[in-house]
User: Fold these one by one.
Assistant:
Number 1:
Amino acid sequence: MALLPLLTALAAVAALLSAALTAGLFAAFSIAVMPALNAEPPAVATATMRRINKVILRPTFFVAFFGGPMFAAVAALLSPRAAAVPFWVAASVLLLGSVLPTMARNVPLNRALDRGGADGGPMPFGDYVRAWTFWNDLRALAGLAAVAAIAVALTRGG
């Protein structure tokens, strides 16, 4: 196999796996983790979420999370089929739609939970879970839409 088709295929597979992994992770949080935590006493839920926020910061998460938009952009640049390129670009933009709310909303909410509310007092877990889950739902939907865009790109010879 020539080098360019191999690199294109690797970028495509990496983009698909990254998008699917992060969309699935975000969906699992919205569907199961956050409702389960919200059913716990606030002190237990807060302590557990603080621990999750530390444990998730691993290289595998970073590669999938930050790599997705990059892998999709590389696939767009290397794609041999013009019909696939707009879908690769869309996937890259949609995956950025998972990254940006994370940095602008979810991470600041996590930091507020760590230190307490805006006034320095404890942030009520109910307030946290509602706001965090709203932004997380958007991340999951953006990731799912990216997976769909990648699927279309691949069917177009991507």
Number 2:
Amino acid sequence: MYRAVAVRTDAGQGLRGPPTARHTSGEVVRLARGRYALPQLGSHLRAAHRHSAVLSHLSAAVAHGWAVKWPPDQPWLTVPRNRKMDARARAGLQVAYRNLSPRERRRGVTGHVRTVLDCALKLPFDEALCLACFARHCAAPRFSCGGCGP
């Protein structure tokens, strides 16, 4: 889903031509060692790819196309529970530590139910309710939040 615009490459494999040449020409942006993306990739996805994380909470809701009360000003990322990130790497990010499913890692974003639950745990009640009801009615009709309407 999101891997079409961000690639991880080892020793230049996966890109046509040397990555440094593509980087200097502006065709790709270097995110981290061995990690490149197209320039139009959003800042939240760049941060997730740079830190080998997945989008979660509000960033995941926006990636799913859901309406949120306030768009996130910082990327919300989830990294595996055993991952170490120093304070400098976490600067400017909202980081959560959780076990990630292979599907979440592959897609680069938490699933619908996980996103709603994460937001319900971290956001103020009105923001979480807004997001949960939107997910229930518009985005994922098979998901039931138990009482915010038909």
Number 3:
Amino acid sequence: MFQSLLITGLALLLAWKGFAITGQFLAVLAGNIGFQALICWDGLRRYQHVFSAIKDHKAQIPI
């Protein structure tokens, strides 16, 4: 819901400022970047041990 509100608000603002289709693209881009940043933040907050598993070579299974 936050992503759609952000995209809609930015799209309307940029359309009002006269950016036309470029503004629409920038609104969608900004909305998606915001969504991905929040998902990454939430994932790293919940699973703080994920980077320690990458660094631990003994825990990795050989392919």
Number 4:
Amino acid sequence: MAALATAEDVSRLWRQLTPAEGERATGLLEFATAKLRQLLPEVDSWLDQGLVDRDLARMTVAEAVRRVLANPHGARAESIDDYSYTRDGSLASGELHFTDAELLSLRPTSVTYGGAGGAFTIMPGRWA
């Protein structure tokens, strides 16, 4: 299956990518999409049914890749003479990940099983 986002989407969120960054972004976008589909196996179905906004899914995948590209070595802090800079821990890992808030935003508000007005309605929240 195709990636949910493109290198151009990453560029829109961040800045113009170099050719090397564009190639890396393309690979990371495929990985991010596969990872999202593993974490939320029904995401494609939800997208097709209009239960989840396709643009939100696209930009969520692009944002996960942007975080990696913005800090490829996973640097947490840097300092030179009197200058020092510390990155937020969630941005400093250098690993591709989705935040809990991002994953929650990609779940439908409610999912009904058993057809329209079915017997079971599940309100997704946090998961293990």
